[in-house]
Amino acid sequence: MKNYKNHFLNLLVVSILLSLLYSCNGDDELTSNVVNPKAEFIMTTSDTNPYLVAFTSNVTDRDSLRWDFGDGESAIIAHPTHTYAETGEYIVTLTAFGERGSTPAVVEKAVIITLNDPTAEFTSSASTDNPLILKFTANSTYGRSFAWDFGDGTASTEQNPTHEYAAAGSYMVTLTVTGFDGTTPASITKEVSAGTVLSKLQGTVIGHESSWNDNPNTYVTAALDGNFETFVDGPTAEGYVGYDLGAGNEAVVSLVKYAPRKDYDYRMVGGEIRGSNDPDYLNNYDVLYSITNAPATGELTEVPLTGTGSYRYIYYFSSDGYGNIAELEFYGGGGSEPFDSGVINMNDWTVQEATAGVSVDISGNSINFSGAGAWAGSHIFQEVTVEAGTYQLSGTITVNSVIDETWSELIFSTDQPQPGEDFAPGIPYQVSYSTWNESPTEAGTYDLKDANKGGEFPDDGLYSFDAPKTFYIVIKSGSNQPYDLTWNDLAFKKVD
């Protein structure tokens, strides 16, 4: 019996020792597998409100976190913003908590809240529909209120106003920006020009080849078709689209408009508007504008450009957005002088439909005709008066997409066109773009003399008048096939 009791006691001791051993091994194994969180953060002070700071955390292996902003306020979200009540220095603490048994990560940084004087700067751009309407954009920092003097006796307190001038001319515009209490207001005065017509710049389409899955509907031409529903989708992350304006047609880009692919607006952030005069334009270029915010979907974002040179190659480039863009338009003119269209007034065209199916878009110095075919047609016209002397008719026609059975013709006529009727005055036409007469159908931009096949347009475009004369300039266009073409920089100017 004694031996039995001793044996039992020995077994009990061994069991206790084994339990303790396994327990210690388990704790060691648990401790060795714990991953401690890591934390870091950055701070960005608003350029409009010096009291507002945005915090962005970079935390790994955490279950929760907590911010202490140093003024008694806190937050538990990853990327908070915080508005301080007073100037001064505050110690901001970010604490990241990990799994059970881990050591929290603690990061402290100082943020200094100071008052900054506001700055004043602005840009302006003329409407492409009415050049007397100017859109003003305040590019200011730390401003709380804005006061505009448009130089014609009118004013505004909007941050980014639109103003219509009564007459063309130059005006001295002043912007005064007032900041927070205790700061000094800033003011700037610039000369702006109202009534200057911006030409819609077009040329030979340039861009990356093919598309994602080689889908023709997402080739680069989708950015130039006037349709927000279509979009460019490159075969790789890098993509671009734009125009080669042609040798001798270099232009100053004064305004760019763009719209993103629906649901992929973020892919345009970081994209660039570029200009170049080098055939190797992808490697040798000037950045005219960098896109820093996602643009609105389904509408054109307008950005005025200032201080740019003249460029032959103009394009949008994206290094990692697959070239995703729905629409792209450039406006400007050759050199720095405003475009002179002579007796033609681009705001005075009357548009009439002959047979439903052709749309007409008149923007800047561009007139676009497009339709689905089925012998649809439209015409536009305006009345002009010339003095005795010599006038020159000039311009270009851009073939965006033409298959066959398409016409677009310019006529001088004393007869006024009528709606719902094909205009056929029974007289010679001046310029006749006609696929039946072998006008070019390959995409590109052509001088009137090169596009004309069948009209009486002289190679030098000169017309002489012995006495003053009033007549209509008419442009008619239509097709039996889907098509899209544009008249550019149409002018009829007295040269002698």
UniProtKB/TrEMBL annotation:
Residues 64-103, 145-194 form the PKD domain. Residues 1-26 form the signal peptide. CDD domains: PKD. SMART domains: PKD. InterPro entries: Galactose-bd-like_sf (IPR008979), Ig-like_fold (IPR013783), PKD/Chitinase_dom (IPR022409), PKD_dom (IPR000601), PKD_dom_sf (IPR035986). Keywords: Signal. The keyword Glycosyltransferase does not apply. Coiled coil: none annotated. This is PKD domain-containing protein.
